[in-house]
Amino acid sequence: MKKTFSLLLLPLALLASAPASAALAIQSWTQPDGARVLFVANHAIPMLDVSVQFDAGQRRDPADKAGLAELTVASLTRGVEAADGAPALSEAQILDGFADVAAQQQGGAGQDRAGVSLRTLSSSAERDAALGLLGRMLAHPAFPQAGLERDRALAIANLKEELTKPEAIAEKAFMAAAYGRHPYAVEASEASLQAITREDLLAFHRAHYVANRAVIALIGDISQAQARAIASALTRELPQGAALPALPPVTAPKGGEQRIAHPASQSHILIGAPAIQRGDNDFFALTVGNYVLGGGGFVSRLTDEVREKRGLSYSVYSYFSPLAQPGPFQIGLQTKKEQTAEALRVTRATLDKFLQEGPTAAELKAAKDNLAGGFALRIDSNAKLLENLAVIGFYGLPLDYLDHWIERIRAVSVQDVRAAFRKHVHPDELSTVIVGAAAE
Fold first, then answer.
1. pLDDT in tens for each of the 440 residues of the chain?
2. Helix boundaries (H) for 261-400
């Protein structure tokens, strides 16, 4: 789940109600209880999409109980307590309640945030029933012991399966090498999952699922008045939360290389380090530059040097994944074990050359044309727009972010890319993890 919320980088001061002068017409306000709301009216289809997010991601896990954030959000649908005259509901009753009105509900936890989303018909009967269930789930989860035991068993089974896969082993080792003891590197283990109790779920929910840190995004076939009423109802029974403890800073890693033996036929290689956080002004220069380096698929430099010219790998890529604190820059590839040393040499040489020279004018133009031309595909559905709204609200991005995205991509120069990469990517700090090849 750690990369679930890292796809579109969309910062913002959500103060009083003030529609943005944007083509997307995002309306935003802060409720009296402190919840932030972003709303876009879309009357093209009779649907409503809703997201409610909290600062309740995996970075808030206690070190000895890693996995608590994910178990908490998974347990929201396992039962609802009786409250305000409404009866308790079992898991089956909750799921049937959504199904009866053809609503779809999902939840998940990423590195920074956790929450739920809902897609429902916008007609009042179906909409009100689905939103009522969602509100009760958020405010009055029962966290039954049986549900926790089942979710824990599933999480442990998934963990054991992951630990047989070289790509999962590599990712866990990479995050540990790049982030050390920072919460971004904390991974769930069987021991940490076994240590989590029902009381832990209750305490985590009470501390993090609070009105004053809720971010509500809505897009669909409703009016602003209806959006205000819906948002208010969703947080009405949530408590106010105390300030959360500050997280430790992300420190520059020492770099180095780690090799982990594995019987897989190929070596799985990851290279990278913490690089950029949400809202950094260098994001657009890094996005354009990364397209040239390794984010552009078959037209990237890494693909050309590693795959096309030398046949060392079928796929090689690079990306930046900004978070609330500096998220990782990463290069990844797989190669035959006997080609590991050569693949590493070529990959590092390609990155070093790019850091020194940046893209050519032709590469820059092609990258900007492709990114600008493909931007419409990032916002071509309510579901994609909903995630963009949630990201804008949670990370405080400008309301007109999407309107200026193409403009800011096209404004990037070769000098911008070179300066941004030199600022955020330092070869001596890059950690390298190789799973598969024996130590040299």
1. 343 333 333 322 222 333 333 468 999 999 999 999 999 999 999 999 999 999 999 999 998 999 999 999 999 999 999 998 899 999 999 999 999 999 999 999 999 999 999 999 999 999 999 999 999 999 999 999 999 999 999 999 999 999 999 999 999 999 999 999 999 999 999 999 999 999 999 999 999 999 999 999 999 999 999 999 999 999 999 999 999 999 999 998 889 999 999 999 999 999 999 999 999 999 999 999 999 999 999 999 999 999 999 999 999 999 999 999 999 999 999 999 999 999 999 999 999 999 999 999 999 999 999 999 999 998 889 999 999 999 999 999 999 999 999 999 999 999 999 999 999 999 999 999 999 976 55
2. 283-290, 301-302, 340-357, 361-373, 382-395
User: Cβ(69)–Cβ(151) under 8 Å?
Assistant: no
**Residue 253 vs residues 180, 196, 328, 377: alpha-carbon distances, Å:** 8, 30, 11, 36
H or E element in which residue 400 lies = none
CB neighbours of 214 closer than 8 A, spacing ≥ 6? 34, 35, 36, 52, 53, 54, 234, 235, 238
Q: How do 256-261 and 431-436 pair as beta strands?
A: parallel
DSSP state of 156: H
| CB 1, CB 107: distance < 8 Å | no
- Amino acid in the structure at residue 246: A
Helix (H, G, I), strand (E, B) or coil at 73: helix
**361 in helix, strand or coil?**
helix
The span from the CA of 402 to the CA of 388, in Å, is 9
Instruction: Tell me if 347 sits within 8 A of 271, measured CB to CB.
Output: yes
Q: Can you tell me the distance from the alpha carbon of 132 to that of 149, in angstroms, rounded to the nearest whole number?
A: 27
- The reported pTM is 0.91
Rounded CA separation 370/358 (Å): 18
The per-residue DSSP string of 112-145 comes to S-EEEEEEEESSHHHHHHHHHHHHHHHH-B---H
Nearest to 81 by CA among 257, 237, 279, 245: 237
Distance CA 101, CA 134 (A): 13
Residue 125 near residue 21 (C-beta atoms within 8 A): no
